[in-house]
Amino acid sequence: xxxxxxxSSWSSGSSSNDIxxxxxxxxxxxEGSSYNSEVNDLLQNALKGFNARDIEATQKHxxxxxxxxxxxxxxxxxxxxxxxxxxxxxxxxxxxxxxxxLVNNTSLENKSPQEVxxxxxxxxxxxxxxxxxxxGKLAVTIRYSDGQEIQMLPAIxxxxxxxxxxxxxxxxxxxxxxxxxxxxxxxxxxxxxGKVVPTIKLFKPMIDKTIPKGLKISGYHAESMAIxxxxxxxxxxxxxDMLTHFCREATNLVKSPIQDKTGQSLHVDDxxxxxxxxxxxxxxxxxxxLTKQMESSDNLKSLTKWQEWFEE
Length: 312
Fold this sequence. Notes:
Number of helices: 11
Number of strands: 8
Radius of gyration: 25 Å
Shape: elongated
Oligomer: single chain
Order of helices and strands: HHHEHEHEEEEEEHHHHHH
Mean pLDDT: 81
Largest sheet: 6 strands, mixed
Strand content: 5-15%
Structural class: alpha+beta
């Protein structure tokens, strides 16, 4: 009789539905856990590749540039790393190498910023005639065939910071403090268990593959948005979830200029224009689409898009 009672329990509609629901949930948890693990493994492997940058090759480039700049001037210049190398967000082929060229105690010290930039451009072009060299308002940019890009900013070191070119006035700027921004990023990164800097490294190649070249987000801009996106973050600290959060937040952050409160430079994202400018709106749409693709991949437990973004 007990056996028949047991049979009745298994055959009842409500019990059968309950069991099927439990099985479905267990299957979803297993599939979700496997999917999350596979995505995070993929991102971890991508980071290993990004971190294996060729510092020796970069240093050789910088040595040649330093020798070229020093020609025909009194005393030698000093180079100070800034940008993504200083903040450890560098990715070979995707990140600019920003270098402050200190002209203190040289015959360039009393020249205007534009005169110093022109000197850099002329000497570098003489030394590297087959390399793409261009001069802007703040820096001379050297683009190499291996994909590496180096920007050299003339600077005068003072007791409290550095003076760089002020493009609006054609003079040396007020004192800026590159180390202030690096400290702020370091603090946010530390508060999030060291996961913010790797997330920035993952963000860079993903947007490079999905946003048109004419709408590129600068490395400094991406880092500034990351500080805003993660300063009060309370979510999961897996790379997948943090990268999805960053893209979601950047969709809105990119629409408005970010004021540089650190004294790192004169500009953060002025290159995109005023709030809700056409370029800002376009980039926001691309980032919004990217976020939806990530969320859809999560819902479908599909690796396809992640593999497109991060598998070579």
